[in-house]
């Protein structure tokens, strides 16, 4: 795996999203692909994609309020990643910014009400002090994007910090796949999900990010397929919930 292969995957992924009417503007994906294509670095990769917009007509199942007419999802991503091998299991990302912002619209008589939510995939900064359990990668509801909307948007509702949910690292491909599978009706995306090129691109991202992640977790019980694990990327750092005998 190298930057050129990754560049092709992101370009092809953008083409699939456009041709299947999933997004209207894939410029930041094309820009990321172009940046990677010009890279001569075979040890790491980095790119950013901002403001990728997805629209879901009608209510998303389980949403509150229930009567939402439209949900707009904005996805922003940037990261620096490491190309690994089968000898040493390394943390696939050295830096990560990953935010999903959601805005729901509801037409009420002569006005339109809007509602906000956001998810943040965080990578633990080792130098920071932790008051609570802190997996290396974790999903949190809210975060800076939601706080930035202002307290007044939430009336008297009490919103407490959500648990840090252990989750594997994601790149822009896996992030978009996450959005599609969690917010789009299956009948709207089934053709895309079944596309062989789509499956191949997602598999490549999982191979690059999830193979080392899950291999490290599984080392709590066995060491296959790696023989050495990078310091700080051991299973007890990835998921502090795992107890050692």
Automatic annotation (TrEMBL):
Domain of life assignment: Bacteria
Protein name (Swiss-Prot/TrEMBL): Uncharacterized protein
Organism field: Flavobacterium azooxidireducens
